[in-house]
Amino acid sequence: MSEENLAENRDEKAKKIQHPKGKLSAYERIDLLLDEGSFTEIDENVVSEENPDGEAVITGSGTIHGRPVYVFSEDFSIMGGSLGEIVAKKILRVMDLALDARAPIVGIKDSGGARIQEGISSLYGYAQIFKKNVEASGKIPQISVVVGPSAGGAVYSPALTDFIFQVQGIGQLYVTGPGVVKTVTGEDVSYEELGGVEAHGTKSGVSHQICENEEQAFEEVRYLLSFLPQSSEQKPPVFITEDDNERSVEILDNLIPENRNHPYDMNDVINNIVDDGEQYPIQSNYALNIITSFSRINGNTVGIIANQPLDFAGVIDIKASEKAARFVRFCDAF
Predict the structure, then answer these.
(1) pLDDT-based confidence at 245, cuts 50/70/90?
(2) What CATH number should be reported for the domain whose range is 3-225?
């Protein structure tokens, strides 16, 4: 059987497991992320004795808006997407290729964590992935898309990446599940309460973007990458705009109220300054008293940080400080 037929058979089996749960298969997710027909699988023949037809991750390269990216997509239909020695090696290889090519890496997360059957080998694999995340930090954009459980050892790597997209209802990030919490504390808690979008999108600030479904998540990843350079050694793409860079923005003359006790929406200021009134907010559901977003001025990408008077009068508290500092750090690196 050809490699193409093997991939098709594997995908059909995965769909039968994933679709009833309201989730897509690993291959379907890659197809949504990348430009049509651009995906080239890497190490498809690297398998283990337990899974001779394919391991619990699919790795490869492709393009987004014609620019190269590397991707790994965890396959929950195979041993719960658990990470063993072979899975770790495949992920590390594609991360190395992304670093060598100075191209972004996108990790699609759907894993129950370490493969306990492999013991210390699995934990060592996680340690190597964390180390590689740190090595790539500030060099190439690292993006995580949480479209299933990211549990146990699988939860740490996303937190080391630059941006986390989390899908409502199916994407969860937690170190230990509800069963362990119940045993230790006696508290009943659901997976969603423990590590869902409410916990990480609005309270902890771990997730940068909350998405209603997988299609939205991958469309937003593509949009985010349009603002970013391929690496810290390159410049972001320049877009043609019809806005006159010498235009007068008269609305700004009367936007700020004379009464200091009356708030106003800082987004009105931003949207009237940037190209085509277009901005892409980051962590828009967390620390609402400060705005962090990507936009363009005269076709060039800019990072925007602004106090938001509509929330807590725009004062800077701990959460706002952390949100802004992390955004500044990313902009400084790239």
Answers:
(1) confident
(2) 3.90.226.10
